[in-house]
Amino acid sequence: MAGAPTIELADAKPGMSVADMRAQLEPELTDADRRLLSLLFLRHDAENLVALLKDPEAEVTADGLYSREEYGQILQEASEIDLGASKYPAFLVDFAHQYPDMQQQAGFFAEDEMLIRYYQYGISQSSDSMVRQWFQLNLDVTNIMTAMIARKQGWNASEYVRGEGEVVDMIRTNDSHDFGLGALLDYTAAIMPIVDEQDPVEKERRLDAFKWLWLDEKTFADTFSVEAVFAYLCKLEIQERWARLDAEQGRATFEQIINDLRSEAKVPEEFIRK
User: Fold this and answer.
1) What pLDDT digit, counting tens, does each position of 166-195 carry?
2) How far is C-alpha 112 from the chain's CA centre?
3) DSSP letter string over 195-229?
4) Residue 25: which residues within 8 A CB-CB, separation 6 or more?
5) CA geometry: angle at 185 spanning 179 and 191, to 5°?
């Protein structure tokens, strides 16, 4: 980590690719660290599996843990009547097994359902507190934004949230403007303006900026731990998603978003860089 380039969200290009970082890390990782970091890359496998369920000839990325042949093995296991023990994550096999029935359900979006299951898997499988919090944050923010958007449409928000926990329970039972979450989650105030953003691209930018600041806060004082490595990889993935933006416009936009979020979320002074 000491030799890794310093990265900022507003950088026009990633400091290095996620693939290059993974290659550099591989010889240094313990088995426990490797298992922990694999939870991050598993998201790509979840996305690839959804793509293949929709179209068996779909292209898949090489960013995850498994090959196309292994996806075929997952799909084969999922087609069996008696699902036995598998070397693959159960949520992938279960999703593929249930997919034909879920397709028939009104309002079913495969990508959204798989993402929720991925976050739940990360929470249940992580042995590290910070990494569990990362998956919980993503699950909670997804549910909060989904619920608020549903409410704006006049729908019953409780029907659109997934999973379990205090946040989901409050969304299902609290009728206040922020579902009463302001007293539970210190980042509620930062999420509210993101939900109200009308431009979907700008909304994604603001959401990624919010997550970037969260990662900064969690690893600010601990730059050489596996948690810092996990956070750095998360940031590289965020940068890669936005690498195709116009460099000058993208940098200015992200700098303004970061400044706004720091103000709204009341991020501690030590995280504010001049």
Assistant:
1) 999 999 998 888 899 988 898 888 888 898
2) 11
3) HH---HHHHHHHHHHHHHHHHHHHHTT-TTSHHHH
4) 37, 229
5) 70
